[in-house]
Design brief:
Strand content: 15-25%
Largest sheet: 5 strands, parallel
Structural class: alpha/beta
Distance between the termini: 47 Å
Bound molecules: adenosine-5'-diphosphate
Number of strands: 5
Number of helices: 6
Strand order of the largest sheet: 3-2-1-4-5
C-alpha cells in the first residue's frame, strides 16, 4: 500500500534544513505533503501564499511532493486525508521535548497516526527560519541558509 506522510511547519521562510528533511522524506515515502500552517500563533513575516510559493519553487523537481496549507488540528487533517505519518526534523535536544509532546498528543487524537523523526543534517542543524529572518533583516548574507532558487525573493521580502 502507498505510504503518505506530511511534513508540517510554519516555513517562515523555508530553509535548507527544511528542504533536507523534505528531500529525504520524498526518497523514503510514496507521497509527501508539505503542510504550511495557517493558524500559527506566531505572527509570520511571509503570507501563507508567499510561504507556499517558496516551497513549491524549492520542491519543483520532486514529483511526489505537494505543498498545501492547512488550518486546525494536524491529527484531524491526517485522518481526513489518509496520511500515515508525520515527519519532523530534530535539530537538538532542545527540539525534543516539544516534539515528543506533540507526537504523543497527535497519537491520542488519532491513534493511527505515527510520528517519524529525522535527525537534522550536520550542516543544517543550526538553521532556523527565525535566524534567517534576523540575519537578512540586518543585511547579512543568507545564501548558505536558504534554497538558491528563492534566495532573492526572500531577501526582498525581508528588507521591505
Ligand atoms: P514549527 O513552527 O512547526 O516548528 P518550522 O517551520 O520551524 O515549524 O519547522 C518545521 C519542521 O522542520 C520541524 O519538524 C522542525 O523541527 C524542522 N526543522 C526546522 N529547521 C530544521 C533544520 N535546520 N534541520 C532539520 N529540520 C528542521
Amino acid at each position: 500500500m502507498k505510504k503518505t506522510v506530511i511534513c508540517p511547519g510554519s516555513f517562515d521562510p523555508v530553509t535548507r534544513g527544511h528542504l533536507d528533511i523534505i528531500n529525504r522524506a520524498a526518497r523514503m515515502f510514496d507521497c509527501v505533503i508539505v503542510g504550511v500552517l495557517v493558524n500559527s500563533a506566531k505572527n509570520p513575516s511571509f503570507s501563507i501564499e508567499e510561504r507556499i510559493d517558496f516551497l513549491r519553487e524549492a520542491t519543483k523537481e520532486l514529483d511526489n511532493v505537494k505543498v498545501v496549507s492547512f488550518d486546525g488540528l494536524l491529527a484531524e487533517y491526517c485522518r481526513q486525508n489518509n496520511v500515515d505519518a508525520v515527519v519532523r526534523g530534530l535539530r537538538a535536544v532542545s527540539d525534543f521535548e516539544y516534539e515528543f509532546q506533540m507526537a504523543l498528543t497527535n497519537k491520542k487524537l488519532n491513534p493511527q497516526l505515527e510520528t517519524i523523526f529525522l535527525s537534522a543534517d550536520a550542516d543544517a542543524m543550526y538553521l532556523s527560519s527565525s535566524m534567517v529572518r534576523e540575519v537578512a533583516s540586518m543585511g547579512g548574507d543568507i545564501s548558505n541558509f536558504v534554497p538558491e532558487c528563492i534566495h532573492d525573493k526572500i531577501v526582498r521580502g525581508l528588507r521591505k
